[in-house]
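so im writing up the methods section and need the 3-ketoacyl-ACP reductase record in one place, dumping it here so i stop losing it
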Amino acid sequence: MTVLQMLKPHAGLRVLVTGGASGIGLVIARAFVDAGSRVHVCDASQAAIDALLEVESQSECNAITATLADVADKDAVERVFADADAQLGGLDVLINNAGIAGPTGGIDEIDVSEWEQTIDVNLNAQFYFARRAVPLLRGARDGGAIIALSSVAGRLGYAYRTPYAATKWAVVGLTKSLAIELGPAGIRVNAIQPGIVKGPRIQRVIEARAKQLGLSYEDMEKEYLAKISLRRMTTPDEVAATALFLCSPGGSGISGQAISVCGNVEVL
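--- predicted struct ---
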């Protein structure tokens, strides 16, 4: 195998992507399909799943299947794995992608229910999926892989977004601990820390923060970009490409890492 060939995942990987019917999750799912993988996704939005499956029904490979699920619901997680096993017949890669932005506000303004929901979706769900995936990953052909989506907010403080930042730091701790625990079984565990990623989600985040600080959207966006060394947003494709590399032979020696794909966000 040449070095160039090592940069592409082996064909036939069985991949589960949480939050995979839209946004970064969908871009990651499609990237794995393009690399010859079979992919099952779950998502909390029936509309997003319907749109995805409509596109898939017109595709020759029809390589993505889906389950409607709230990732914070333990019973729903069991349904996801039942469906994934029926569709894939095993598992080689878990992409723990699902997450929410959580509330924007001072610590004394955040409602307890909003804090708890952010913890449930962004952190507890990662545990639920990893817990169920590991027994399957032990049987992976080339050693299984878990990729957890953290955030640049998992390495920097983030005022007015404390629930989100707290969960994303916790995801890194979970990742590094699981890498140590599962390494002897050949299972690699890494986190990707996207920065300010182009798309509707970051637009909503900027709008909320602009309102919190009394700024226009345009001025708030300029402030965000000024904090990035490359002075541009990251693309979903750049995040997906990193996920592919981590699951390729070229990434087979990488575990326990939190890899920022962010253009070097300097401060939040």
